[in-house]
User: Which sequence fits this backbone?
């Protein structure tokens, strides 16, 4: 725990908490604990739980009803489980009742079945049926990240009525900054912000000030699509409706921020040939990390059989001109780098919505031109470098003019091929319904390796007459 | 423009707008244009601007004062420039006056100097000095993304006074959901949310309900650090203070969402050896794309000279046992992939704050163990694959037991080296104040290539007695 941060923010440190505990000054301790921000308290409790389970439980019980549920929702699932196992049914009922449905669902998805049964048994009938409904939404859908705690106003209300309604029902709502307007059948009709309410007179009817061009999503929409809408329109919350346009929940920007972070991490991991795990680095065990890394390593290693075969087939060519072998790593790496530049750029543009499937021709046309200039500049520089450094400086006179030419022609052509492969494969993957992120560096490298070797040996045969 | 989306959201399509324009039904047209969401209107205007500049300007002038500034802030900078050049000084003054300071600053940073002078000449004295102050904050600092339009309450106010104050001054504030409490010298004392105000009686004093444990940042803090605080504490806005704890601005979550997206894109681009450009794919020209890709390609190509030298030095060994050459691509690719898995994982964990500099020993210890198991499983599978596929199936009898052994021992050792290099380099870069993201795949690959070749030829010398 960061003592300095604690001191600056709260005026006391975790060590002070220990002192009050040892001196049995429980009243002060209780007040200090309830003073902590939910997130800080959750982190503190998680660490305490590892050292002294009994004390962690005591501290948790010292929290007020509201605080307890909020802190609970920020705990990692193993700490949640250990608390659930130790509190009595009455205490459990209070926690479950105060938890937002989306947090409860997140927790239940990871708890063992026996614990889930006890939790559901202690939920009210209403909460239980809500939870069961939420558990059915597919992973990564809008439904899976929405919450059921929102305020719905009616068109006929005045601003005055609306404030009354908010004062009466707002306490349990996750946010009250954007309010939704529905008809008697819960069909979404418009939205109105607290700012709209405050900036208009008390007699104004909601119908007059609500915005009926609502940006909304359907429960089955992809969460990444929802996140892109939040970014595009600078939203604080979004209505989630069912197929009949009935309001069923809202998504708030704090959950979207988490989605964006997770999606970016997932993309980055896939690009590096890692199977995503969705957990912070140190929370993933050795075996689990191994399991997330080995599949792609294995697959890519075995698929290198092709490059092996190509080289074996040209062994005589390589024996006839030994200088050629030395340039294989450079050709493979450069074309691999070129391919991954294109693929990574396109993958990111696809996931941000900057590039769409329909743009494939524009993408290829742009990449070909960029590749032409990249290939040309690399080939020219490399030609000079080989001649000056490798031949003259290091005295490798096996490198003739034609060898240099073969290397640099290969470089030029493979750079173009690599960029073409790099930009088209992610779009193809996307159009087939796969995640384009797996078409990144390692995958592209394996393909481009084989391509560059084939081009290399073809030029060698043409210009050097070997192979 | 997406007709379907327009029809569904607004009940009319861009074609309808064209029709009203041709029929000179300007009153209806004006109403329809003002009905559009700012972001949609900006996108529509941007496209219209390319086809028919005069009409785009006419449409822009049809927007109400409030709408005009909001739409203007969502336009790309070249469209902003063309509008500024065509409106008269009075119109320009209205736009500048209505723009939020952070949007104005973003625009001014990209406009040519002559246009900037005209904009500043038409700003009020107050706006001008604010803009000048904001322009001084370093790029990527908290100061550079904050806005000056916020509401500051006083401790002595009652809830009733606060509502009065919000009604009087809230119209120009970027958000009114979180309010800041300052003393007479503008020192930050606490925060209070609209929800707190609504849930307490009108007589309650702000001092009683405000939260004095404020999560805040200083103007010079890094924006990525600020974004991590938003994620950690689920914030909607954050106070920005100067070195003397005086409130100077606020950062809102919508700007943080953009920061997060930009930072993730920047990391991804750096990981793929691209110099970041901060613009959507199609907005970057061919030459600019070339410029962002060629530096690393050049550097990495030239540094492959080392692998060339290593291979040249072992030419006799390769000539003595030609089968060895065929495995070079597989060894290089697999170790490159292993290295980039580790480096990318660590880079992402560093930027999310999951791993800190102080964790370096824990990271190495974890990676060594993961690498041991990855190396072991890859080596075993590869040994069998070479024996069964390459030797028996393809009849390459140059691959003796000892050749197979050399390849797989090399694989095992290089996997461990690659993961070690991959996890330590980003941490070292971070501790030296460089961005760890440049220590990703391409950079690691170049180092690991040389390492794996050296290990390969050492084992070949030991076990095959060649070289």
Assistant:
């Amino acid at each position: 725990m960061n003592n300095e941060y604690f001191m600056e923010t709260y005026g006391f440190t975790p060590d002070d908490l220990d002192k009050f505990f040892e001196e049995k000054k429980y009243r002060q301790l209780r007040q200090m604990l309830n003073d902590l921000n939910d997130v800080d308290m959750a982190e503190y409790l998680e660490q305490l739980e590892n050292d002294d389970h009994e004390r962690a439980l005591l501290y948790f019980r010292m929290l007020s009803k509201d605080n307890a549920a909020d802190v609970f929702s920020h705990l990692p699932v193993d700490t949640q489980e250990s608390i659930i196992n130790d509190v009595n049914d009455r205490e459990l009922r209070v926690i479950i009742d105060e938890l937002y449905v989306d947090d409860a669902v997140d927790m239940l998805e990871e708890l063992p079945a026996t614990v889930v049964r006890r939790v559901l048994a202690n939920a009210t009938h209403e909460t239980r049926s809500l939870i069961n409904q939420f558990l059915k939404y597919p992973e990564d859908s809008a439904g899976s990240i929405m919450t059921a705690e929102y305020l719905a106003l009616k068109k006929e209300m005045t601003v005055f009525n609306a404030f009354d309604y908010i004062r009466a029902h707002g306490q349990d709502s996750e946010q009250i900054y954007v309010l939704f307007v529905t008809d008697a059948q819960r069909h979404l009709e418009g939205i109105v912000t607290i700012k709209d309410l405050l900036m208009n007179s008390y007699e104004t009817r909601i119908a007059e000030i609500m915005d009926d061009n609502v940006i909304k999503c359907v429960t089955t929409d992809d969460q990444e699509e929802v996140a892109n809408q939040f970014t595009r329109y600078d939203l604080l919350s979004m209505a989630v409706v069912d197929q009949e346009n009935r309001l069923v929940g809202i998504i708030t920007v704090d959950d979207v921020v988490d989605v964006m972070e997770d999606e970016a991490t997932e993309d980055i991991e896939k690009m590096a040939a890692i199977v995503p795990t969705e957990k912070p680095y140190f929370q993933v065990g050795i075996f689990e990390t191994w399991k997330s890394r080995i599949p792609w390593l294995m697959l890519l290693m075995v698929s290198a059989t092709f490059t092996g075969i190509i080289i074996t087939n040209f062994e005589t060519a390589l024996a006839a001109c030994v200088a050629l072998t030395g340039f294989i790593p450079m050709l493979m790496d450069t074309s691999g780098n070129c391919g991954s530049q294109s693929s990574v750029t396109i993958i990111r543009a696809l996931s941000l919505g900057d590039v769409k499937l329909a743009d494939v021709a524009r993408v290829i046309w742009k990449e070909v031109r960029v590749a032409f200039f990249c290939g040309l500049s690399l080939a020219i520089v490399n030609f000079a470098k080989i001649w000056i450094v490798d031949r003259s400086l290091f005295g490798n006179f096996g490198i003739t003019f034609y060898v240099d030419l073969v290397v640099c022609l290969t470089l030029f052509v493979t750079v173009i091929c690599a960029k073409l492969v790099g930009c088209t494969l992610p779009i193809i993957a996307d159009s087939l319904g796969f995640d384009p992120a797996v078409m990144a560096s390692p995958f592209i490298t394996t393909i481009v390796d084989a391509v560059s070797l084939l081009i290399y040996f073809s030029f060698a045969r043409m210009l050097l007459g070997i192979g």
